[in-house]
Each structure stands twice: as structure tokens, then as C-alpha cells.
Design goal:
Elements (H helix, E strand, L loop, with lengths): L13 E5 H14 L21 E3 L4 H6 L5 E3 L8 E3 L10 E2 L2 E2 L7 H5 L3 H6 L9 H9 E4 L3 H19 L13 H19 L7 H17 L9
Parallel strand pairs: 1-7
Antiparallel strand pairs: 2-4, 3-4, 5-6
This protein binds iron/sulfur cluster (SF4) (2 copies).
One iron/sulfur cluster binds next to helix 5.
């Protein structure tokens, strides 16, 4: 097959899979906390070069054994033992060596859980300045839909993400997650609740309706023992 030259900023479609299948998997994973996304990353290594602080839990003992202690620092706001790993001058993870993860078999759970398709699915924006590789991959993902039900789920998810973005002032300061990936994950978790409370025409919730929806979302957030995704 002839080689096709590709400009650095050129996007080509990449199959993201069936939308409903992806969504149901993401919901189960976020509910159970088991994680482990099966992302068809292929040659992409965007996650490892995108200026991310990686959360490692105290029970990830094998991972912690593989990372030099000097690269870890206590995770702000989380119980003792939770740590973060930072990144280098170019945004690269210190475990990223020769274009590969040097601890792949023992990589942190946060790395296993990260699935950039959540941005394509929710419409939450990636910061193109700090995470250009992820932003590019997000543009490339193309979901397929088995029917109108799948498209309806996609609309509901995007509407929930938009609701969260547009109604930040209805939430107490600091109660919504700070990172875009966390906001996208929250949309996945609450989109059925938002749909249930607002009906199909989600734009018509009105000020009182929006406050009630925000209050219900807040209860979901308060039910979290800890924020699991920090990158
Ligand atoms: S940016 Fe997306 S496709 Fe690329 S490595 Fe990360 S999860 Fe995989
Ligand atoms: S630990 Fe490995 S998979 Fe995770 S960001 Fe670093 S290099 Fe990438």
C-alpha cells in the first residue's frame, strides 16, 4: 500500500466503536470504580506527554515500587498515602522512555482508566495549548450508532455536559471537579438523572428546574468518598 503523508495538524477519522456500548461500559466502570478502559490507542501516546498529574492510590503497591519516591508527592485533599506523579519540561511523564511506558505492566490505575473518547462523547473541551495530542485524537474519534436510541443517548450525554458547564454558579464553590476529564466523567455519571429531571427538552428546565437538577447532581458528588480520576 502506498504511504500517505500526513500533515502534523491533519486529522483522520479513527473508529471509536459503538456509542451505546462505549457509554454503558463507561457507566459501569465509573459506578464500580473498577476502571480499566480498553481504548484503541494504536500508536497514540498522547496521555504520556500531556502535562498530567497522575494519581496513585496507596493500594497500588506494585506501581509504587516501580516509581522512584522522589517523583511522587502527597495528593492535595486526599487521605495520607495518596500521591501524585508530575511531569517533565515538555509535559512528558517521567516513566515515558523511548516512546513507551517503561512500567507498562505496572502502570498506575489512572493510566489504565483514562479514555479520551469521553471528550468526544460529551463535547467537553480539551485544553489544546497544554494537551494538543489529546485534543487532536479527540477530534479524530468517530462513534457509530446502531439506531435512534444510540443517537438519543449521545444527545442526552452532551446535554448533561452542557448543563454542568452552563450552571456552574448553581453549585457551591469547589464542589464541581476542576479538570475537564473529571467534568466529562461526571456528565457520564449523571446524564440519565439530568434527563429524567428535565425531560427530552433539556434546555427548558428553567431557573427553578436547573437548581433542582444541580441539587440532585450535588448529592451524587457528595456520595463520592474521593475523587478517583485526577488526571
Ligand atoms: S490520548 Fe487517547 S488514544 Fe491517545 S494514548 Fe491517551 S487514551 Fe489513548
Ligand atoms: S505511567 Fe506510563 S502509561 Fe502512565 S502516563 Fe506515565 S508513561 Fe504513560
Amino acid at each position: 500500500m502506498a504511504k500517505v503523508d500526513r500533515a502534523p495538524d491533519e486529522s483522520l477519522p479513527v473508529a471509536a466503536g459503538d456509542f451505546s456500548h462505549w457509554l454503558h461500559g463507561a457507566e459501569v466502570s465509573l459506578r464500580s470504580g473498577d476502571g480499566g478502559a480498553d481504548v484503541p490507542c494504536d500508536a497514540c501516546r498522547g496521555c504520556c506527554r500531556s502535562s498530567m498529574f497522575i494519581h496513585i492510590k496507596p493500594e497500588e503497591t506494585q506501581t509504587l515500587r516501580r516509581i522512584p519516591r522522589a517523583l511522587l508527592f502527597p495528593a492535595p485533599g486526599l487521605p495520607k498515602g495518596h500521591v501524585l506523579m508530575g511531569y517533565g519540561d515538555q509535559g512528558q511523564c517521567p516513566m515515558f522512555v523511548n516512546n513507551e511506558c517503561s512500567i507498562y505492566e505496572d502502570r498506575p490505575q489512572a493510566c489504565r482508566d483514562y479514555d479520551c473518547r469521553v471528550f468526544a462523547a460529551t463535547g467537553v473541551l480539551v485544553d489544546i495549548e497544554t494537551q494538543p495530542e489529546i485534543a487532536r485524537r479527540v477530534k479524530e474519534w468517530v462513534f457509530t450508532y446502531k439506531g435512534e436510541e444510540g443517537r438519543e443517548e449521545a444527545r442526552s450525554l452532551r446535554a448533561a455536559a452542557a448543563f454542568l458547564a452552563e450552571n456552574r454558579d448553581l453549585f457551591p464553590p469547589g464542589s464541581l471537579p476542576g479538570y475537564p476529564v473529571q467534568m466529562a466523567a461526571l456528565a457520564v455519571r449523571v446524564h440519565r438523572l439530568v434527563l429524567e429531571m428535565t425531560g427530552k427538552n433539556q434546555q427548558a428546565a428553567g431557573p427553578m428546574g436547573s437548581a433542582a437538577v444541580a441539587s440532585a447532581v450535588l448529592k451524587v458528588l457528595q456520595g463520592d468518598a474521593e475523587s478517583r480520576i485526577l488526571i
